[in-house]
Protein: MBL fold metallo-hydrolase
Amino acid sequence: MKSFKIDENIFWVGGIDWSLRDFHGYTTERGSTYNSYLIIDEKITLIDTVKHYLFDEFLERIKDVVDPSKIDYIVVNHVEMDHSGSLPKILKIAKNAKIITNPQGEKGLKAHYGDDLNIKVIKTKDRLSIGKDNLIFFQTPMVHWPDNMVTYLENRKILFSNDAFGQHYSSFYRFDFENPLDEIIYQAKKYYANIVLPYSQQVQTALNLLKDLEIKIIAPSHGIVWKENVSDILKEYQNWSKDPSKKKVVIVYDTMWGSTEIMAKKYYEFFENEGYEVVFMPLKTNHISDIMTEILDSSIIGIGTPTLNKQPLPSVSGFLTYLLGLNPKNKKFLVFGSYGWGGEGTKIIKENLEKYSNRVFLEEKIQYIPKEENIENLKNNIKRSLS
Structure:
């Protein structure tokens, strides 16, 4: 396993999981990388580690550059085990290495790995000399854990950004310009929508904290390294963190006998005729993480369910739980569905949405199979509700 040079005396030594297809409940159809970086200076510094099962290839890549026992510092930007999982193993080799982290990081590391750790605690804007260059640390709490921080290599102008700007994406090639830009931007958007979205206000705070830094390279903990498109991903994060809402509708539904699907298709026709971009996402064929990626920049979300035993369909309830946890802002909701005799499914969805948002502009339900007069009413009611 070879290291990869990202700048003079700076190397990627992480691990690649080509087979990963699920990460914390969202699909990772392109696998993932767990990035670690090695800086060769007077003090040899390792930035983060990798998930435990990738330790062997991680160690081989370090050995490709330097004797791992000579590592002086290990910076832990984030305690979560996809980043710190190999820390105990590397410490058995780099026995004199000092761990660099923030107060929340120290607390988390001791909770995970015990109190017998050699830790130097830093805070925002602390500077650590490693020889010819300096590391500057910036705490970025809740992007997306309390312990999160980023590390800036001052003279090289490299930001080791931890989870920020990352993507679950496996590739032989490490740089942005070596990969399809539309694909890595999409994967970065999916990562944001499914992990970072609830913390958009904290992202704004972090971006403001870093705004005066000159950044030539962004080296995140997952995915590719940004070098030629740094300004592009910074602009995307500025946009995504402001909860963007364009003239776009995402219609999400499940159906039992097809009646709720008839309603969903009629709403598609209505919004298309009104000039909206419409994304049609049946839950039977679309994963909730892909749906959230589309929801990120939408203005209206349609949620459709029939009633099953006085409840929404389980697939719709599961989607709703996932949606509410990610807490998208600036969205309007349309709730619709068919029923046989009770009709509680749409009511329950509406009530749950209203606990989180008062922007449910219409609940529409039809008994049994929609008839022509029902369809006309659907169109008239939604037009009236949106006006």
